Amino acid sequence: MSNIAPEPDIQAESTPTSDLGAIRRVLVVDDSRLQRRILVASLKKWGFEVIEADSGEAAMAICEASSPDLVLSDWMMPGMNGLEFCQAFRKMPVDCYGYFILLTSKSEKNEVAEGLGAGADDFLTKPVNADELRARISAGARILDMQRQLSDKNRMILETLDQLQAAYDTIDKDLIQAKKIQESLVPERSRNFGKSCVSLLLKPCGHIGGDLVGMFSSDQDQIAFYSIDVSGHGITSAMMTARLGGYLSSFYFDQNLGMQRQLNGTYTLREPAEVAAMLNERFLADTGIEEYFTMAYAVVDLKTGLLKMVQAGHPHPMLLRPNGEAEFVGEGGVPIGLLPDVPYEQFELQMDPGDRLLLYSDGFTEARLIDGEMLEEQGLVDLIDKTGSRQSGHEFLEDLYWALTQIMSPQYGLEDDVSATLFEYNG
């Protein structure tokens, strides 16, 4: 008995419609010439470009040259049957998905499952009905249309990701260079002034940060040192620190606001309160700048041990005595660049040989611990006791920072820049 429906039945429809628009090229595979002729005639009337193959091997050769949008393949064929052809078709590396319909007289569930497992998308039972064929092709067209839309969107996403990656690589390269420039603002991490010493720590939470530490001296009898924390993070804050580095340069005294040139050409150190007022005036005079910064700035006479300091909204400096006692000093004050005409007050400390003064940013005291709480001032005192309060210089600061990282919450990590300035007075 023939498996081919009467010819008029398969040719009932003639005009192509928009619901088949996703399918243009159809491959018909059947060892029966008559069956191919009937299918091809209707497909061409519906507006498709149709290619014929009389075997699975011939169909594979066609697909390797140019993959079709839709395949209509008989299951039972000599040589490579439809199931084997479907498996081979699915293994082909192609850019676009091809819809595969198996033509078969098989209707058992296990046979249908076998066909789906081989990669077939749909089945048509012989004899083929024109309306059913048209409906199956329409369903396939919708699937292909969605697949191609998804592919186009994925391609756009990949192209956008490539562009973003290129932009990120450029920004990352610039930030690495910016980090080197920012590091050059702190060329010395430790420096001896006679028997005394100033040590610096600067650990940005990203490539670049908004903290700045430094020191300078007009002679061997007086030195100035400071700790600054610019509001915010990232590039804007880093640019602010670069500007501050110029205002407090340890190399170019004529540009340093902390220095005052004398008639004989030498330089003396300005009072801390005067330096704070000058910085406040400079930053408020610049329009468009919304950032401000906190600062602890000190000047010390190494002969007498008398230290003068201004605290402008910065965390309270910590005075460490040789016997292990710790005392927080200062009264807070107003950040610089926030309000005009602020009267900055300075205070004095009498330092004795063996005393140390620690200036630090709130990256220390506001660090999140494993329990979710902040370290705070007492926690900093405890941390110093645990790390060995008698260590000195840059080693003391590095060990203190390392100890902080060991108790920080991995969930939050380093949320803010961490910096510190340590002055050790030894007479």
Automatic annotation (TrEMBL):
Sorted UniProt keywords: Hydrolase, Phosphoprotein
A UniProt-annotated Pfam family: SpoIIE
Residue span(s) of domain Response regulatory: 25-141
Modified residues (4-aspartylphosphate): 74
GO biological process: phosphorelay signal transduction system
UniProt-listed SMART domains: PP2C_SIG (SM00331), REC (SM00448)
GO-annotated molecular function: phosphatase activity
Domain of life: Bacteria
PANTHER family: STAGE II SPORULATION PROTEIN E (PTHR43156:SF2), STAGE II SPORULATION PROTEIN E-RELATED (PTHR43156)
Protein name: Sigma-B regulation protein RsbU (Phosphoserine phosphatase)
Species, as recorded: Sedimentitalea nanhaiensis
